């Protein structure tokens, strides 16, 4: 295995030291030549000009190998090598041969070759520039150097390649036209390695170089003669600066590209939303113009509209997301995109708001149509109920039920009036909305469709108006009929009441109108009261007759037969005849009593000194006859036309009245006897 140490320290001429350790194994001269070429390519030209001191460690190799290596140096670095120190082994080769050979070849080689033992090497090179293998104090770890060199080489290679790629990308972004920039960016958009990783590697490497621990171990001397000569640190710094500059430009290119891509995506989505809303979305609304002809039809249209709204909601959600993205880009403040972004935002907002307004208008229109049909249906049901009530014949039991039915009829008619008024209001509101429908028709002629809707609404309102008018006419007829029936029942009730009143008058006449008076004057008063009493009864009878006549007229008008007038009239006539017979009997008794009392009082008041006044005795006979007749009448009952009989008052009442008559008859009889006594004594004298 060929092993070469790193270029070590410096010789006394400030030249670099190259150490070539040889081993017992076979050494490949080709590999050694390549390795030397690589190591000699590391220093700068300035360093190379100061020359090299080459240490060939032959302690573990054979002389012929050492000789071959020294001769090879003539071909690889003849101008740079100033001294070759061959470290000889303890068992020295043939001194005469070796010394003579190198001395003879000195002029041809171009550099001095000396044989020296390891402990004598410090005569030519300072100990601090030699490693421990040669008795020096220079701390050197070849594997550590090799690893760091590999890192440096890798960083250099990657950073150089990355710089070329970034320069190509960045320069492509600076081309003239937008299309050329985009095409260039598309072709070279992603670098082959991660710039962040390369930058991190470079910073770590630079940190190692700045700490001057490039060739030392953690515990060794922190000093490296390679920093200035090999230009590692400046090269790394230069590469890092270039990388940072190109990477910053690259990031800006990526940012612009990302922004452009985002803007294009937003523009594409905006156009998708706009195209759908102005295309299929608007077409859906154009085809939905009807309002239905019933509640069920309007509900079906509402359900269809909800499906349309659901489809629109998905696009409105995209609109909200796009609006937020556009707002974020506007807040970023890139002036070159502000105009385009604002135009996109305005276009998107205009289309979405217009479509949302159309959806809301359609929803409100359908809701108004549903309310209109609901009111129309309720009104139709009310009219049906009212018509059904009017078609049923009225057969009330009494006037109160008729009044209740009439009140219910009036309430239903009032409810129909209110329903029709509400229908007109809903219809007019719906017509107003339909008249505004042309404002979002997108140029579509909706006159025909609107005319159908308007005709339907007006037709419903006119039909309801006609039905209501027919019901009103029927209500007027029914109201008149029911009022006549109320009047009929009232007449029948009042006629029955007249019969009752007349019956009560008859009963009062029989039971309370008993007295005949104690004298003529009182009897005349009773007679006058009786006539007035009869007048009241006559008025009652006439009132009943008029009521019964009215019932006949009302029955003829209503084309019905009265339930009570048929027996009320006979009852009224029967009671009236009974009252008439009783009244006549009462009058005859009172008139007889007046005649009796008048005649009796006249005789009793005559002076006895005038006997000539009583010459005619027949007056007394007449008084007695009238009195007896009156007494007889008191005992006779009143006989009605139907053969029934009825007495005035009770027997005791009649006995009392008869007793009073008898007393007065006794007085008249006594008076008569007094008048007869003088006549009997006169002839005797």
Give a summary of the structure in a few sentences:
This protein is mainly α and 685 residues long.
Write up what this structure looks like.
There is one protein chain. The protein is mainly alpha-helical and about 675 residues long. The protein has four domains: about 5-140, 3-Layer(aba) Sandwich (Phosphatidylinositol Transfer Protein Sec14p), CATH 3.40.525; about 140-170 and about 195-215 and about 225-280, Methane Monooxygenase Hydroxylase, Chain G, domain 1; about 290-475, Methane Monooxygenase Hydroxylase, Chain G, domain 1; about 515-675, Methane Monooxygenase Hydroxylase, Chain G, domain 1. It is about 70% helix and about 5% strand. It contains 18 helices and six strands. The chain has helices at about 30-40, 45-50, 65-75, 95-105, 105-110, 140-175, 180-185, 195-210, 225-230, 230-285, 295-330, 335-390, 400-435, 445-510, 520-560, 565-605, 620-635, 650-685, and strands at about 15-20, 50-55, 80-85, 110-115, 640, 645. The strands form two sheets. The chain has a four-stranded parallel β-sheet with strand order 1-2-3-4. The protein has a two-stranded antiparallel ribbon with strand order 5-6. Strand 5 and strand 6 form a beta hairpin. Helix 16 packs parallel to helix 18 (about 650-685). The model is unreliable at about 1-5 and about 215-230 (pLDDT under 50).
